[in-house]
Design brief:
The complex is a heterodimer of chains A (about 120) and B (about 280). Chain A contains 4 helices and no strands. By secondary structure, chain A is an all-alpha fold. Chain B is mainly alpha-helical. The chains are: A mainly alpha (about 120), B mainly alpha (about 280).
Chain lengths: ~120, ~280
């Protein structure tokens, strides 16, 4: 029988590892980014929006694999965004194991909103 | 200025913001955006994008500890997240549509509100165990560790709390902040939950709320890797540092000084927005 306590510990571990891994990837991408673009002038005064390969999760992954520093940072940020999403998904499963029908029905609403947003809204 | 120097400045500023955000309980996001926009001239859309990801990092990091210590009420958090995530979607859509000066003015107003929230000593809420049919039906109750055993508490005025949470989510999505102050207000004041349960459950919800806007921010090009990188890493670092100091010294003096700074930043955000400079 799965208990509330076990769920709490599992959620805690999930959140911590997600954040640590994301921070490590962002840091690695950041070092690379500064090594390559450190001498360019920063361009944040005017909003241009980001190029497509930094906006679409699929393209971000592809671009990161080809070694683009900005895309590697973006992968870390994606992982960070996915951490609470994974926590929600995990909770649905935990409530199901506890046979808490009401929450098995309610929690997926949150999950659906998160996925809708991640798929570009 | 080169990107290296700029990044270094953002590094130091974000570390400080994360530190002060943790020390005062306001969170790093609401503190990091004003210096980015006012001092460094960053477009507010990039600033709130970077702030939002830092909010996810600090909230998830801190939530990991609170959940383990059994202060956060996961059921209450999950239930209210329905309201905050829907609100966050609305807020993120608004952020992509309204004028930047509108974002700036709302941001300034939230800073002024936060200053009051931070300076005001919260009156202890015992979260008395009064009967409430809706809360009982939704199992919005629990026990939390305290000096005198494990007192039982139950939520009250659920619809009011739910509505306020929708508002908190909208602000979070519009401004790229955690809006922890509004979330705590909804649980502590509206739903009459114990203060410690309110603050830690609020923290637990902030990450999911922010994630609901982050997808929209990402696809609309608000997340710039070069800016988000130093902000996310250092707000996280600063808040971890702040959480350590917090245990030792939470003086009234720090709060008051900080509140004055926040008021000044809020007024400057509003003034610059009205002048069309944001």
């Amino acid at each position: 029988m799965i208990t509330d306590r076990k769920v709490e510990v599992a959620i805690s571990v999930l959140l911590r590892s997600g954040v640590l891994l994301a921070a490590a990837i962002v840091f690695a991408g950041g070092v690379l980014y500064l090594a390559r673009h450190g001498n360019a002038p920063p361009a944040y005064h005017v909003f241009h929006g980001e190029p497509q390969e930094l906006c679409d999760p699929g393209l971000v992954m592809r671009s990161a694999l080809s070694g683009r520093a900005g895309a590697i940072i973006q992968v870390g940020l994606l992982l960070l965004i996915l951490t609470p999403v994974a926590r929600s998904a995990f909770s649905v499963a935990a409530f199901a194991l506890e046979r808490d029908i009401m929450y098995v029905v309610m929690t997926p609403i949150v999950l659906a909103v998160l996925l809708y947003s991640l798929l570009g809204g | 200025m080169h990107t290296s120097l700029f990044t270094l400045i953002v590094f130091i500023g974000s570390l400080l913001a994360g530190f002060l955000g943790a020390l005062t309980g306001l969170g790093g996001g609401v503190v990091v955006v004003p210096p980015l926009t006012l001092a460094l001239g960053v477009d507010i859309r990039y600033a709130i994008g970077a702030s939002l990801v830092s909010v996810i990092a600090t909230s998830s990091g801190a939530a990991a500890a609170y959940v383990r210590e059994r202060f956060s009420n996961i059921r209450i958090g999950m239930f209210l997240e329905i309201a905050t995530t829907l609100g966050a979607l609305l807020g993120a859509y608004l952020a992509t549509r309204v004028h930047t000066s509108t974002i700036g003015i709302v941001f300034g107003l939230v800073l002024l509100f936060s200053a009051c929230f931070s300076a005001h000593e919260p009156k202890a809420n015992t979260g008395e165990d009064k009967p409430d049919r809706l809360a009982h039906l939704l199992k919005l109750e629990g026990r939390y560790p305290s000096d005198g055993g494990e007192p039982h508490y139950r939520a009250r005025r659920v619809p009011l709390g739910f509505g306020m949470m929708f508002g908190a989510g909208t602000l979070s999505g519009l401004l790229g902040i955690g809006s922890g102050a509004v979330k705590v207000l909804a649980m502590d004041q509206a739903m009459q939950l114990p203060f410690k349960v309110s603050t830690t459950t609020s923290n637990f919800m902030i990450g999911v709320t922010a994630a609901a806007s982050a997808g929209i921010y990402l696809s609309r090009g608000f997340l710039d890797p070069g800016l988000a990188m130093p902000v996310m890493l250092e707000v996280l670092g600063g808040s971890l540092l702040g959480a350590r100091v917090l245990v030792k010294a939470r003086t009234k003096f720090v709060r008051i000084v900080f509140s004055i700074v926040i008021v000044a930043l809020g007024l400057e955000m509003i003034w610059n927005s009205l002048k069309g400079r944001l």
